[in-house]
Amino acid sequence: MTADTYDVVNPATELVVASVPVAGPPEADAAVERAAAAYASWRAVAPRDRARLLRRAADAVDGSREELAQLETRNTGKPIRDSRAEMEMVAETFAYYAGAPERLLGDTIPVTGGVDVTFREPLGVVALIVPWNFPLTIAAWKLAPALAAGNTVVLKPAELTPLTALRFQELAQEAGIPPGVVNVLPGRGSVVGRRLVEHPKVAKVAFTGSTEVGREIMAAAAGTIKRVTLELGGKSANVVFADADLASAAASAPYAVFGNAGQDCCARSRILVERSAYDEFLALLEPAVHGVRVGDPRDEATEMGPLISAGQRDTVASYVPAAAPVVIRGSVPEGKGYWYPPTVLAPADRSDRAVREEIFGPVAVVLPFDSEDDAVRLANDSIYGLSGSIWTRDGARALRMARAIESGNLSVNSHRSVRVVTPFGGFKQSGVGRELGPHALDAYTEVKNVFLSTEG
Ligand code: NDP
Predict the structure, then answer these.
(1) Relative to the CA of 232, which ligand 1 atom is closest?
(2) Ligand 1 neighbour 189 (Cβ under 6 A)
(3) In this model, does residue 448 exceed pLDDT 80?
(4) What number of other Cβ atoms are within 10 A of residue 250's Cβ?
(5) What's phi and psi for 70, nearest 5 deg?
(6) What is the rounded (10 degree) CA torsion for 381, 383, 389, 392?
(7) Deepest in the core among 154, 179, 203, 327, taking most CB within 10 A?
């Protein structure tokens, strides 16, 4: 480490894996200027050619999938099988949005005395600020639609996890995306991130991270009336009715919250179980939790790795004091690494801190409920509204619940709800705007309306 660089650490070994140049305000300003200079020519690239470049970026990621996956695992400690799946999604995201440049269609609206036509236009320079939990995946959700729509970008990865973003910048250039269109800027959020948010030449900020920082960004962006999209925290409910396939619900529940060591904004970390099935469900959940394979992230069989940092482990541990009502506790490897065991708490009080706050670690709470109304009340009793699951064999109930729960992404009899082709985003303090699917393009375009007179 020197004054101009900082060390990036492997959370599974606590060893330094790379030394990375650290950017400050002058580098942030220079990156914005590069992106601003590249904007006019990038937005003028014919849609067919922009599509071709995005397809080439998808192919470049696809061709380097294993290298990127290994890099992501070394930097985050996530299991290699997860990193491989994530790199597949990154390539798929670029391939999907390669279809967008030629499909950014407008409307034709007949009006008195003529016709109005609308255009979907890019915004300009967009700042992308992303977290450490899914470093390249979340960056790709923003990069691909932003570039497809004709914007240029400055991407600020999390300080802890810049490696795959830096590699992506090289791959994008190899794919033929012109210099200046994609600018990756590792550096401290409170310095470089803040500078980007306040910069007058940045038209929009797309952010994923904590609700607290999201709130700060929204306030700071007000100074220049920037467009802002925010993907923030969650405390999602996994609602299990007595009529559900309890074995399937219990087998899925650990993966719904301990995936990525619980560092997932979609984690279904509140397991709500109908009281009449509560004991039976807990009995099924216990072996399922012990079945989660925690260990060396490089091992193909590993399902859960360490937390991202010692600080994150301390934060998680603070939710499980000595007197905590632990009902299930898994185990972790001995020795180096920021490990925390899969843990299930059964708080007696619905207002317990572990029930209300996003823990962002492998800690779930399990609570009984008494009726469908009670389940809805409990599920919605949160400042968040990002994801959630409903387990029942009653189709009408599943639909009633899905309509009643205030959340952006729900799944029925499953814990999966993130796909490249479908919208993703939060209700309430889980965020503003939608990523993925066709909806993401709204976040990176302005609608321009033009009236054409037929009268003279
Ligand atoms: P943050 O929200 O602090 O960080 C997310 C990104 O924002 C990082 O790139 C960070 O940079 C940057 N950032 C931080 N402060 C500012 C700022 N003032 N202006 C602009 N950008 C900024 O998340 P943390 O990584 O600190 O995690 C803290 C908690 O946030 C977690 O415990 C979890 O509860 C929640 N979280 C939620 C996520 C989600 O997907 N919903 C993702 C990550 C975290 P830098 O890395 O340099 O700090």
Answers:
(1) 41
(2) yes
(3) yes
(4) 24
(5) -65, -40
(6) 20
(7) 154
CB contact at 8 A, 443 and 102: no
State residue 17 phi and psi, 5-degree precision: -105, -20
**Ligand 1 atom nearest residue 220's Cα:** 19
Query: If you count them, how many residues does the chain have?
Result: 456
pLDDT at 450: 98
Write out the DSSP string of 408-431: S--EESSS----TTS-B--EETTE
d(CA 63, CA 174): 12
* 3-state class (DSSP) for residue 364: strand
Kindly report the pTM of this predicted structure. Answer: 0.97
Measured distance CA(158)–CA(175) in Å, rounded? 24
Task: Give the mutation target among 213, 309, 312, 418 for probing the ligand 1 site: most ligand atoms within 8 A of CB.
Answer: 213
The pair of structure tokens assigned to 297 is 């992230």
How far is it, in rounded angstroms, from Cα 305 to Cα 141?
24
The alpha-carbon radius of gyration of the chain (Å, integer) is 23
pLDDT in tens, 167-225: 999 999 999 999 999 999 999 999 999 999 999 999 999 999 999 999 999 999 999 99
Residues facing 205 on adjacent strands: 127, 228
